[in-house]
Amino acid sequence: MIRGDDDQFGSLRLWLRDGVDVYVSPDAVVHFVFLSTRKRLRLKVTPLLIECLEWLDGSASVMELDARYEARASSLDSKHSSSFVDFIQYLYGKGILVRKDWMHHAFCPEQVERYSRQLNFFLDIEESEAAATALLKRIMDCRIALIGIGAVGSWILRELVQIGFQRFILVDPKTLEPADRTRNAIFDYRLIGEPKALVAEKFVHSQALEPETRAIQSPLDIDTNVEELIGADTDLIINTADEPYIGATSIKLSRYCVEKGLPLLVAGGFDAHLASLSEMIVPGQTPCSDCYAIHFEETLRGWKPISHPIVDRRRGFGGLPSLSAFAASAAVLKIVRLLSEKGGDVEQGRGEFLFDQYNIDSFKVGRNPECPTCGDLGKLQAHAD
Amino acid sequence: MQIEFTPTSRWLIRPSISMIPAGDGIFDFFQSSTRRSMRFRLRSEIANVVRSLDGSRCLEEVCQAHGATVTQISRFMEVLHERCAVEPKVVRDAIDATEHYRVLNFLGDYFPAAELFAAFERLRSTRVAILGCGAVGSWTAVQLAHSGLENFIVIDGDHVEESNLNRSIFLHEDIGAPKVEAIASSLHRISQGVRVRMVKENVCDADRLRALLSEARPDVIVNCADEPSVDITSAWINEYCQHQGIPYVIAGGYNLHLSLIGMTVTPGESACFNCSRITLDELEDESLQGVRRLWRPKRNLGSLSPLTGITSSLAASEVLRLAVRSDRLRPAMWNRRGEFNFLTNELSFVNLPPRSECGCTAESIRSRVPKYSQ
Prior knowledge:
The structure holds two protein chains of two kinds.
Chain A: H1 7-10, E1 14-16, E2 20-24, E3 29-34, E4 40-44, H2 47-53, H3 62-75, H4 84-93, E5 97-99, H5 109-126, H6 129-141, E6 143-147, H7 153-163, E7 167-171, H8 196-207, E8 212-216, H9 226-230, E9 236-239, H10 246-260, E10 264-266, E11 279-281, H11 289-299, H12 321-339, E12 349-354, E13 359-364, H13 375-384
Parallel strand pairs in A: 6-7, 6-9, 7-8, 9-10
Antiparallel strand pairs in A: 1-5, 2-3, 3-4, 10-11, 12-13
Helix pairs in contact in A: 5-6, 7-8, 7-12
Chain B: E1 10-13, E2 17-23, E3 26-31, E4 36-41, H1 44-50, E5 54-58, H2 59-65, H3 70-82, E6 86-88, H4 89-96, H5 101-107, H6 113-125, E7 127-131, H7 135-147, E8 151-155, H8 179-190, E9 195-199, H9 206-216, E10 220-223, H10 230-244, E11 248-250, E12 259-261, E13 264-265, H11 273-282, E14 292-293, H12 305-324, E15 336-341, E16 346-351, H13 363-366
GO molecular function (chain A): nucleotidyltransferase activity; thiosulfate-cyanide sulfurtransferase activity; ubiquitin-like modifier activating enzyme activity
Domain THIF-type NAD/FAD binding fold (chain A): 115-372
Protein name (chain A): Molybdopterin or thiamine biosynthesis adenylyltransferase
């Protein structure tokens, strides 16, 4: 029975959401299998409640279904001690049931049309309508500075725009060249010779629903003032610039991000890191680029390649579009997880996808308490605790 | 290409190879594109010759400068060439002159210089059919075009909708257009030299698919069609390919939100789709055996672009491996399929070996399948 404060709940039209599979065993145990996370919930319930599960298609309100339940119980002369509404409330609280029109409460029709399947995915991850909605809104509001729009940066941009990011500061000093046809995800032969930053900006404006962009045709050099380059309104920086050297630009950006408390994603890179899983740097939580540099200086101490006889090797390194797409996808997943409430801890360490047998070679790298850049963050936190 | 280690020939260490001393005259040769290593113990004069190979001087000059002879070095040079560590200057110049130098450099970790351009030509000329041009199909097609493939057959009867834009390669301007036309436009933006045969049709039975493929005559097929289901379309393709000896990649099947990867089938060489069904049925989740699955019509499952990106990247890599048609770079998804986990960034694989009860590896099939060339 629906009473008093439950009236509002009773008016909801709930449905068993698509991201959950339901299995029923002969002993009246219901198995709810969450498809994206493989999480499972087992409930021992009455056969009548199992029958009710098939009614949850959003066509009737909880109150109407409760009445149907009572009628069905009477017709079966079934003595039922369990409350239908309690059962439904429990499933709603677990994110197994959702409102039929939940997306429309938060998004306009065009947004719902474009992102409905993605919101369903977010619902599986976040396990509640409110959290899934909040995740897409955070994506739409997030302002990203993307530095480098090349073999990996362009694929990252393409995926970010697809999933709803629309505010960008796009930094690249180069122009689109014929050879970019083999690696750049936004390549268009008609745009050869145009600045990549402008090509990227044009792409964002042609795809995003409410784009806000700044295109910057300047390099990130060692002596660049980062804030003058990208502005002070960035929420996340992505570094894919391999010139002058991604290690050097990442350390520069990492120091800036530690000072500002901004997350930094280091993705792509160069030669031996064609399908890197990328590094998410969150000041105070993960190693910063200086921590990584110190770590690898120690662990690779005995591993020193001799000077290569070819001085200019810029056209000598390999690459595959499919590896760029893999690296970009892994990077974008890290960004989604960073913004997600249930995406888990930010990984600390590195990983490489190995083309030979499609293995992932990953290893942990922890924060260095003696790091001259971010070591103090840990000490300050400990003091505060 | 004829490769010679004559005194007047000019050679270099491939630019993507790093040479690392490991002590006691031992050197690691690290292939940076594929992160693989090989190790040799070298006499000092040989090591000095190899580390000086920059292509600017002939072998005889380099050897003389380090107290070695061409006769001494030539056998080792043959080994380094076979193991893809060195290349003739003439090949380096040819690679540098192409737009696809990065793909060639990558393939150069698998193919010695003597075979490299022939392998790339096989890749370039491969006719690939993509059945189903949704999220994975569209992403796979553009990655292959970026890689240098120029011949496509795309099969899909749907039109681009707003709801496709969150995960497919289509642009806003494509909305309303047939998907095959939108894909053709995308491929032509990458290269005007790409040829696309468009089939605007949702294939609804095995006979119709057989007729289409018989007419189009692809070298490789990628299955991204999930209507009526990936299992059904894979069974149709399997039947056709087993008979014709054509390899295929199963790339669709956005399986329960985790990216499904593979499998790749080469008739007579690997397990086929029917073999995989036998094994997968045996592996069915024991905890769910004997239970009834609640029937749920018209489900709208979730999707996320980067998971599409990962599935398609491995599908494209598998097509590339099939396209070069060589034992030097064989498919990695023969006899297995994998899943990428969104939450953990991990790839897991299930082995799906050939099954004798399937009958697909019979000699009658094997004999019809052309062996890989070297």
